[in-house]
# Entry
Amino acid sequence: MRCRFGRLAPAKMIGHKPVMGRAVFAMLVFSAGVTITTPAAAQTTESPFEDNLLRLSEILGSLHFLRNLCGEKGGRWRGEMGTLLAIENPDPERKARLVARFNRGYRAFAGNYTVCTAAAVEATGRYIKEGEQLSRETAVRYGN
# Structure
């Protein structure tokens, strides 16, 4: 069973208001604060929390596949990724890296799961916890 949201559309094509998850909400709030207070010239270089954003993108892709596989209807996690991209407002190369990691997370499970299993439910829980922890650690370390 393949989800029709298999690939991430550009942020401007996401036409719904996303529902915030705790992990994503914390990361987006943090990210917005950093983006607002970072000089424009500094935004062209890789941020010190770039690896965290890339991992969060991958987690969102995995959650997008797994949650839809296990009965959640809609594009909540894809919408969260669109919100992350909108807040970060990355240059085209950086956006491509973030989107590639989202798609990598999605494909990692799409290649192995066709039905919702106990293992898929467990993986979903682990990814939600990892996203929450990553968001907290990033906010503590790099927050203003």
